[in-house]
Structure formats: C-alpha cells, structure tokens
Design a protein that fits this description.
By secondary structure, the protein is of the alpha+beta class. It has helices at residues 47-52, 118-127, 146-149, 192-210, and strands at 5-13, 25-31, 56-64, 67-74, 83-89, 93-100, 103-111, 157-163, 168-174, 178-185. Helices cover 18% and strands 37% of the residues. The structure holds zinc ion (2 copies).
C-alpha cells in the first residue's frame, strides 16, 4: 500500500439460512477510494488484520450507495513498512538514509545538529517509492515540474527543488543563506507527487523550530 490513505469497505456476511438478526461476520476490502469497485478478486481482511496493520490510523467513517466503510490514513508515528531509516551523526552534520528493498532512495543531510523530530523521517519514508521504483535509474521528473514540486515558504524557511541529471534535490534554507537541510532523491519511483510529499514533510516538521 503506497498511498496516503485507502478506503476500507466493510461488507457484512450473512449465513445463507439466517434471514433475521445481525450479520455473522464481516469482510473488509481495501480499496484505493470510492471509485475502486473491482476489489472482489482481492483477498479480504478480517477486523483483526485491520486492527494490527502498522503505520496506519483508522480515520473517518464512509458511506455511499454501495455500503459503508472507513478511511485508513498514514501515520507519521511510525516509518513506512518496507523502508529502513539509518542515521549517522557527525559533529558538523547528520545524514539520514532511506532504503527500500536495500536500495537507497533518499538521503537527508542536516547541517549542524538535527532540529527535527523522528516524525520528519517517518513522513519522508511515507513519500518514498515502493520496491518497484527503488533502483539506480534517473528520477523521471522534469524541470518544468519544479513549481508544482516546491513547497511554500513557512516562517523564515524557504524551499528549493533542483532537478539534476540523475537525482532531485529539495533544500530548506533559513533566512536566505543558512542551509538547514538537503534531501536527495534517487530512483525511478519518484514522481512529482512523491517529491512534493517529501518536500511537504520537510515543511511540516522543520517548521517546528522557527515557530
Ligand atoms: Zn537530521
Ligand atoms: Zn514535527
């Protein structure tokens, strides 16, 4: 599941001879959203499985003419499943590496001491591509997409996105001169949307210090 949220449809299951009373059980279907109606050939979940899934919070209830369900939302309290985060701290900088299927897909360089919480690292891991996009290929975004990938400034922090031959870099700069953080993204799984999501993670969690 590599989406910020999914819609889980709850299907009541009735025993064939029970015409009265409540359902005998439930089948939970994970879908990408209200329009995703071809879930019948997938494997349904039980409530137990839904309660145990890591990295997701149960969100708002949902209902339409097809039935009821609820949203599952990504939580930044834990890293994305399948993404391994390692941190190397040095006196003058820290580097956080994000690996998917043993391949590095992102690297965050913090100038000086880290001024962010672990939620930033978790939020970046949620933006990272899945195993199919974790490789040494170039990031398939173009410089024309820079405006849509660049987060708005917040407080005294400005953001920049640079499309390089193989990689994309997102930088956070304070007071126009002091670079706080530099996020380097690699691999063919980075879409403009994912780059934007990683930038928004920086914006949300680096902003903590300035405010
Ligand atoms: Zn850091
Ligand atoms: Zn934060």
């Amino acid at each position: 599941m590599n989406a910020p949220r999914v819609l889980v449809r709850v299907e009541p299951v009735f025993a064939t001879d029970a015409l009265f009373g409540g359902p005998d059980g439930y089948r939970l279907w994970v879908t990408t959203g209200p329009d995703d109606r071809n879930y019948g050939d997938r494997q349904p979940w039980t409530w137990d499985q839904a309660a145990r899934v890591q990295g997701w919070d149960i969100g708002r209830m949902y209902a339409d003419e097809h039935g009821e369900g609820f949203w599952l939302e990504r939580t930044t309290r834990v890293p994305a499943l399948g993404c391994v985060i390692t941190t190397r701290a040095r006196p003058s900088f820290a580097r956080h590496a994000f690996r998917v299927a043993r391949c590095r897909v992102a690297s965050l360089h913090c100038a000086g001491e880290c001024t962010h919480d672990t939620e930033l690292l978790n939020a970046i891991s949620h933006a990272c591509p899945g195993p199919e996009g974790a490789n040494e290929e170039r990031v398939p975004v173009r410089w024309m997409q820079v405006p849509e990938m660049t987060p708005q400034p917040t407080g005294r922090i400005r953001f920049g996105v640079e499309v390089r031959p193989m990689t994309v870099q997102v930088t956070a700069t304070e007071d126009t001169r002091c670079q706080m953080a530099r996020l380097t993204l690699t691999g063919s799984g980075w879409t403009a949307e994912r780059v934007r999501a990683a930038g928004e993670a920086l914006r949300a969690h680096l902003a903590d210090r300035a405010n």
